[in-house]
Amino acid sequence: MKLDRIKAFVSLAVGVATIVFLVFQTFKAIQVMRGGATTTAHVISTFDDDRESDDGRRVGVVTIAWYEFSVNGRQFHGRTEVSQGSLSEGDHLTISYNPKDPEKNRVRGDRKVLGDLFLIYLIGGIVAYLLIKDATRRKQQSG
């Protein structure tokens, strides 16, 4: 009985911690998506990344571009993924950044942050739900 209460507590604690993590990630994503200021960045390096599916089949190639920009004399960096060959060193990009924290930046129009957030919510939400459901079940069983 006491072991079930401990397991229920651990499940509940991990479930709540998962929810807190999701909320933190949401605020982080909102700060990046909101931007607030724009500037021009220049691409400093690129490389092609060959993507494969889980079963090893080739999905395609994307170009990953690293860029830099300056705000108030300080240099900041970021990266983006684009279709193969659409960016090369020296190209210019319009980026959005958080004026209070320029480390939070993205290429204008880049929706990768939303895709990442969706996956985090999907997986994290399922984990939190199952853990809290398990904690409730254990608590009911232990009386």
Please name the defining characteristics of this protein.
143 residues
Fold topology:
Blueprint: H1 2-34, E1 37-52, E2 58-71, E3 74-83, E4 92-98, E5 101-107, H2 112-142
Antiparallel strand pairs: 1-2, 1-4, 2-3, 4-5
Helix pairs in contact: 1-2
How would you describe the overall organization of this protein?
It is a single chain. It is built from two helices and five strands, in the order αβββββα. It is an alpha+beta fold and 143 residues long. It has one domain. Helix 1 runs antiparallel to helix 2. It is elongated.
Q: Could you provide a short overview of the structure?
A:
This protein is of the alpha+beta class. Helices cover 45% and strands 38% of the residues.
Tell me roughly what share of residues is in helical segments.
Answer: 40-55%
Task: Give the helices and strands as they follow along the chain.
Answer: HEEEEEH
Distance N to C terminus: 9 Å
Radius of gyration: 21 Å
Question: Order of strands in the sheet with the most strands?
Answer: 3-2-1-4-5
**Largest sheet properties:** 5 strands, antiparallel
Number of domains: 1
Strand percentage lies at: 35-45%
Shape: elongated
Give the helix tally. 2
Question: Total number of β-strand segments?
Answer: 5
